[in-house]
Amino acid sequence: MRPEPGQVLHFSEDPGITRFVPHIAATARQPRPYVWAVDSARCPDYWFPRQCPRAMAWATSSTTDADRERILGGDERVHAVEYRWLDALRTAKLFAYRLPAASFRPFGEPEPHAQVATEPVEPLGPPEPVGDLLRLHEEAGIQLRVLPNLWPFWDAVTTSTAGFSGIRLRNARPRP
Question: From the centroid of its chain, how far is CA 53?
């Protein structure tokens, strides 16, 4: 599930959104209201139930061979979740909203991780069911690790040369 040219996507478990209005998210680190979306490269970050904590790592041009093997197992990208979220990952009903990319600008430093709009945005059509989230990972060639606890993996990733992102980590089990 990726956007077509000229589009960005917003993923949601709510299939009834007819208009996206800028808001300040409860977890926001910035004071400005936005409508949030992602481009094709960041779509896999959201192939999860909304509240599911996940740690993600990927190869970059500066990832060492040692970290590619140690962190990524030789793959290009790895996502990790905890066992207790596996059933939710299997059964989640996730929807993708296609939005006009012209309404958005890149957001994030040093590299953009999202697209944001400061004005209300209407979807280009009805939301599309995303389908089987495990199969999406498989088809995209993304290794999906299921772990008892995310923190050891997260600590290894954040001290490596791999690119990384963590979403909803506050919902992960406590550190061991």
Answer: 10
